[in-house]
Amino acid sequence: MRYDLKEGNLLLKGKNSFILIGRAKRLFILFIETFEKELCQTVREDDLIAVSAPEGGDPRQAFMLLELIREYNMPVMVLPKGHPGSGRLNMVVSAGPEIIPGCGIMRGTHPEQNVICASEEFSGFSFYSDGGFVRIESGLLGRVADNSGMNIDIVRIPDSELRY
Amino acid sequence: MCSVGGPMDVELAERLKGKKYRCNDCGTTFEAVGKHPVCPSCQSENVTLV
């Protein structure tokens, strides 16, 4: 299933968690800061930026995080394994042409940007940039998300509805 | 804010896959991930893998 991101964002709502997906809108460099080094990732205008809330929360907070990356190019931080701050991250972000939700990962501890921490509800899903659209696929026998039986609501939300 | 990805049982150091580049326009050296490295200083795509 493809959804147009040119006019807004896509909110994928599970029972207890959600993922907000937006379009990068312009080319910029995402700085990924680890304790040892800085990595640069080129983000192109049609790339996706996803914010995952594995325990749910306010989508407006997720939108703020998305905007900090997209509009203000705030760098992202990678925490070392075992860092106590990892458990305090209720929302995490990922950017790129493809984003894969992963359930068995520790928040904030990895620099790769194509996998994002998510709840079990999003297991098997994958998101791909597709010329201003996002293409959502489900790993369940290759069926699209709408037919996956995972009870994920997919809602298109313009920026204006997510701003305080 | 954070960046996430990869399985939990893999050490962070093993997961770093950045490559070092030098910008041919401004001389900046940087480490990048992804297929389309762009100089973080001048936004030039004229970069060389070092």
Question: Could you characterize the architecture of this molecule?
Answer:
The complex is a heterodimer of chains A (about 160) and B (about 50). In chain A, about 10% of the residues lie in helices and about 40% in strands. Chain A has helices at about 60-70, 160; strands at about 1-5, 10-15, 20-25, 30-35, 40-45, 50-55, 75, 90-95, 100, 115, 125-130, 135-140, 155. In chain A, the strands form 3 sheets. Chain A has a 5-stranded mixed β-sheet, with no helix packed on it. Chain A has a 5-stranded antiparallel β-sheet with strand order 8-6-3-2-13. Chain A starts with a strand and ends with a helix. Chain B is built from 1 helix and 3 strands; from the N terminus they run αβββ. Mean pLDDT of chain B is about 75; it is low at about 1-15. The chains are: A mainly beta (about 160), B mainly beta (about 50). Strand 5 (about 40-45) of chain A pairs parallel with strand 2 of chain B. Chain B: It comes from Methanoplanus endosymbiosus. Chain B: This is Hydrogenase maturation nickel metallochaperone HypA.
Give the overall silhouette of chain A: globular
The total count of strands of chain A amounts to 13
Low-confidence stretches of chain B: 1-14
Unreliable residue runs of chain A: 141-145
- Number of helical runs of chain A? 2
The shape of chain B, in one word, is: globular
Helix content of chain B: under 10%
- H and E string of chain B: HEEE
Mean pLDDT of chain A: 84
Protein name (chain B): Hydrogenase maturation nickel metallochaperone HypA
Organism (chain B): Methanoplanus endosymbiosus
